[in-house]
Amino acid sequence: MATTDREIETAAAPPNYDNEDVTKHVVLNEKAAMDSDLDKENQVSADGEEPTLLEKTSLRHVAENLPASAWLVAIVELCERFTYYGMSGLFQNYVQRPLDGSQGRGALGMDHQGATGLVTFFQFWCYVTPIIGAIIADQYLGKYKTIVLFCMVYMVGLLILVCTSIPTALQHGSGIGGFIVAILIIGLGTGGIKSNVAPLIADQYKRKKMAISTTKKGERVIIDPALTIQRIYMIFYGCINVGSLSLLATPYMELYIDFWPAYLLCLCVFMVGTLVVVLGRKYYVVRPPQGSIITDAFRALWIMIKNRNMDAPKPSWQQEHGGAAVVRWDDHFIDELQRALVACRVFAFYPIYWVVYGQFSGNFVTQAGQMKGHGIPNDLMQNFDPISIIVFIPILETLVYPVMRRLKIPFRPITRISLGFIVASLAMMYAAIVQHLIYSAGPCYGQPLCDASVVDGTAYGNNVHIAIQTPAYVFIGISEIFASVSGLEYAYTKAPPSMKSFVQSMYLLTNAFGSALAEALTPAAFDPAIMWMFTGLACASFLVGVVFYIVFRHLNAKEDDMNALDADDPMPEAPIVESRRASHAQ
């Protein structure tokens, strides 16, 4: 039936409201919209659903348990760290003391400054090479294959170290050359592993979004992926320090047998870790490499710099501004890259922390050798660092952090990192005090290990008990839990899914810069100047911790929003945990 003009006019005409009716109509519509929003906010989410904003703020957040494959990765890291610390913890004595045994067992006889310089270079090299491993993993082979490749490189270096530390080889002059070749190859191997194993363990956890769950006691809680990642890296770091307890064994092997059996033990344990990597292949969650992802990232950075605009590489920005660039990424990739740049800004403060951290395996060892050992090898004292970490991680993870979450006290990464810097400054302050006590005691006072301390051809330290050094290692260990663990966590959560290894290598690179700074301080590694070096590092670490918090504290409020970008990660979502398993969540 045909529609008349009158019907069309009537249908098109607006309702005939007077002013009072219009006002009432608008108010009712606004009230209905507000009621609708309130209903959405007050609704109760079912188990497995994403929580509402009200639930996020009112319900307790908990972490999930680690998947079995994450524990396999942790075992691999434990074996690698057993090897790394077990051998490198002996390097100061191996390089500093002469082969004739006049200062205790030694090999190369390069004195204090020479040993500190060479050991510091090794630390520097170990934290430059992760960039190589990261590029190979993210762009070509993937994390798993890259780890296997660099395990083989690592074993070659270990084999050279063992062979050239045998007394016959040392007597024929192969010591220095063999040591340098070995640490170059070992540094390449450990760097390639280091940049990939930390992101690989977090890759084993698939959940990207918060979800509601109910415990056995009937409490409704929120499973928070950010807390689970935090737990993963706490456990990961705990395994690192269990491995570093190799220093309980290798110093005694050095003292009572020789260096080469200690290095051989490290090689054997590393072979066990490599077998775990190879035999556990089918259990790992493995991300494929993303082709030219690193190249794309640097190209995007160049576009940002050229246009002086962080959004310039986005395809949407290019279209709006008539850009001619043809890009292979989307807007989301640039958002992720911007988040990674935020993490790199945070990492810029870390070098001063690593200068402090590096003292425990170098100058602290020499300091311990200037005191009465009472049968304790001077390089054994390093074990109080990992022991303190192993003791305090469970206390924090099972007691302190859960209580803080129940009381709704936030303890975000920026706050934890800042606290780590400040606790590290306490370690340096205490070390300076111990050094003063050494200089105040006989028989050599300000010149430890002088001729007056020689008994039966061996120089002994001043009359200060070696155990007095323990709190310095404990402070270093506690600082690591806050600064180093949070740095690993930040590097993973702020990196794009396709660039986890590369951003991790940027974080590790700060350790190399720290080693370079420590190398510059090597001329101060003599008595009595070293006491003032410890004092200066204490002041620097404290001030950097305060400035760091002032500069970056605003990022604590943005933490959840930045982590939410990973919700678009193509990795499969984990199934919701049943209430039985949720009851085991903290």
Automatic annotation (TrEMBL):
<feature type="transmembrane region" description="Helical">
    <location>
        <begin position="232"/>
        <end position="253"/>
    </location>
</feature>
<dbReference type="GO" id="GO:0071916">
    <property type="term" value="F:dipeptide transmembrane transporter activity"/>
</dbReference>
<keyword id="KW-0472">Membrane</keyword>
<feature type="transmembrane region" description="Helical">
    <location>
        <begin position="505"/>
        <end position="526"/>
    </location>
</feature>
<feature type="transmembrane region" description="Helical">
    <location>
        <begin position="115"/>
        <end position="135"/>
    </location>
</feature>
<feature type="transmembrane region" description="Helical">
    <location>
        <begin position="340"/>
        <end position="357"/>
    </location>
</feature>
<keyword id="KW-0813">Transport</keyword>
<feature type="transmembrane region" description="Helical">
    <location>
        <begin position="416"/>
        <end position="439"/>
    </location>
</feature>
<feature type="transmembrane region" description="Helical">
    <location>
        <begin position="472"/>
        <end position="493"/>
    </location>
</feature>
<feature type="region of interest" description="Disordered">
    <location>
        <begin position="563"/>
        <end position="586"/>
    </location>
</feature>
<protein>
    <submittedName>
        <fullName>Uncharacterized protein</fullName>
    </submittedName>
</protein>
<feature type="transmembrane region" description="Helical">
    <location>
        <begin position="147"/>
        <end position="170"/>
    </location>
</feature>
<feature type="transmembrane region" description="Helical">
    <location>
        <begin position="176"/>
        <end position="202"/>
    </location>
</feature>
<keyword id="KW-0812">Transmembrane</keyword>
<feature type="region of interest" description="Disordered">
    <location>
        <begin position="1"/>
        <end position="21"/>
    </location>
</feature>
<dbReference type="Pfam" id="PF00854">
    <property type="entry name" value="PTR2"/>
</dbReference>
<comment type="similarity">
    <text>Belongs to the major facilitator superfamily. Proton-dependent oligopeptide transporter (POT/PTR) (TC 2.A.17) family.</text>
</comment>
<feature type="transmembrane region" description="Helical">
    <location>
        <begin position="259"/>
        <end position="280"/>
    </location>
</feature>
<feature type="transmembrane region" description="Helical">
    <location>
        <begin position="387"/>
        <end position="404"/>
    </location>
</feature>
<dbReference type="GO" id="GO:0005886">
    <property type="term" value="C:plasma membrane"/>
</dbReference>
<dbReference type="InterPro" id="IPR000109">
    <property type="entry name" value="POT_fam"/>
</dbReference>
<keyword id="KW-1133">Transmembrane helix</keyword>
<dbReference type="InterPro" id="IPR036259">
    <property type="entry name" value="MFS_trans_sf"/>
</dbReference>
<feature type="transmembrane region" description="Helical">
    <location>
        <begin position="532"/>
        <end position="552"/>
    </location>
</feature>
